[in-house]
Write a structure and sequence with these properties.
396 residues
Length: 396
């Protein structure tokens, strides 16, 4: 069932908002919910109608589930029919190893994001889907945002604009200093959902097939669908003749069961995954979520990162609405470095390792023979206790 807009474009332009949030993924919807609960006037905008498909691995680890609990949504995954996760299987070059997972669930971003948007609306936020947004100039009291849909364009004003429009949003089009620089050699993301899961892919298991040109993750989602997400070399995709063929080649080389029908479903792709903006803010503007920087995913932490960013930004955003100070940009950048720096370094180290097939095959063989354990890494990814310095910036 689609989520209707809360108001018209003209009605949105007729008032001054406390906060306008561009992008209704987990980061944007969660921060909109938190700020609406604080009594602020919040407008949540997205270029797509909801529900909508999103390229993503479709898994929530324990950290992400803990974030939902803090938002008062501890039973959300259960209500969505999410599949509990019990193990992770990694395959490369004919070697296959598995490890038990301490928890987590598999659920489509289509279902998760729609549920988070509904929560933002229930909290008092206004929702305007199907509209593109471009950042405008700032005044002493507000910043403008140009919203467009089906030939109609209006300018709205807000005391603070939050950019959560993902990897390739158009929000910062006119501000080159705020754009993200793509890391050299970055892989692209790709994904699809099959209506039925082959029997070889068991419920409660994340499968990852690895090859020299990238890796493909597969997991059963709600309603027995198969979610597929991949990080691929653009050159390999071109050589293979498309996303389905590139993924089939990796699964075949890794030794995972073939998946029929990959060429018969719609695929989505992303631009280069690893990127970083030069700044995370400007006058009355702050970026969060994937728009604040992203690294090639391996650990399944993407949604957790987004939800934690929303949690950290909410108290700072409330301060910004009451009394904007340019130093808030530096404060937000410092908070992001503190929260995300070490985790993204772990991801970069893992993705760098995955580009060395010989080393990966050796480590997998040791893992397969139980001469090496990945449990310490699994523990770091799912760690729930925040270090003291992180606790200091948690404001809710």
């Amino acid at each position: 069932m689609s989520i209707p807009q809360s108001l018209t474009l003209q009605q949105a332009a007729a008032r001054c908002w406390d906060v306008a949030v561009v992008g209704a993924g987990p980061a944007g919807a969660a921060v909109a919910t938190l700020l609406a609960r604080r009594g602020l006037g919040v407008l949540l905008v997205d270029r797509s109608p909801f529900p909508r498909f999103k390229v993503c691995g479709g898994t929530l680890n324990l950290r992400a589930l803990a974030c939902l609990e803090r938002l008062g949504l501890g039973r959300l995954s259960e209500r969505l029919g999410a599949v509990p996760l019990r193990r992770f299987v990694f395959a490369t070059g004919g070697h296959q190893a598995e490890v038990g997972l301490p928890g987590g669930v598999a659920v489509s971003r289509e279902a998760l994001d729609a549920a988070l948007v509904r929560e933002a609306v229930s909290a008092g936020g206004a929702f305007l889907p199907g509209h593109t947004a471009v950042l405008g100039p700032a005044t002493a009291e507000t910043r403008s945002l140009r919203l467009s849909s089906r030939g109609a364009t209006e300018e709205i004003h807000a005391r603070l604009i939050l950019g959560a429009d993902g990897l390739h949003g158009s929000l910062r089009r006119g501000f080159p200093a705020l754009r993200s620089a793509v890391r050299t050699g970055s892989r692209i993301g790709a994904g699809t959902v099959l209506p039925h899961t082959p029997p070889a892919y068991l419920p409660g298991t994340i499968y990852m097939g690895h090859g020299k040109d990238g890796y493909v993750g597969l997991v059963r989602l709600e309603h027995d669908r198969l979610g597929i997400a991949a990080a691929l070399s653009p050159a390999a995709v071109a050589t293979a003749g498309g996303l389905p063929s590139a993924c089939e080649a990796i699964l075949r080389g890794a030794g995972l069961p073939p998946v029929a029908g990959l060429a018969g479903v719609a695929w989505r792709a992303t631009p280069g995954l690893s990127r970083r903006p030069s700044r995370l803010g400007d006058a009355r503007f702050l970026a969060l979520g994937d728009a604040a920087g992203y690294v090639e995913p391996v650990t399944g932490e993407g949604v957790a990162w987004a939800l934690e960013a929303a949690w950290d930004l909410a108290p700072l955003a409330e301060r910004a609405v009451v009394n904007w100070d340019g130093r808030l940009v530096e404060e937000w950048e410092a908070a992001c470095r503190l929260r995300m720096g070490s985790r993204q370094r772990v991801c970069r180290a893992l993705t760098g390792l995955l580009r060395r097939p010989g080393v990966v095959r050796l480590l997998t063989a040791l893992w397969e023979r139980r001469l090496l354990s990945p449990q310490p890494l699994i523990g770091v990814i799912n760690r729930l206790e925040l270090p003291p310095r992180e606790q200091a910036i948690t404001g809710c």
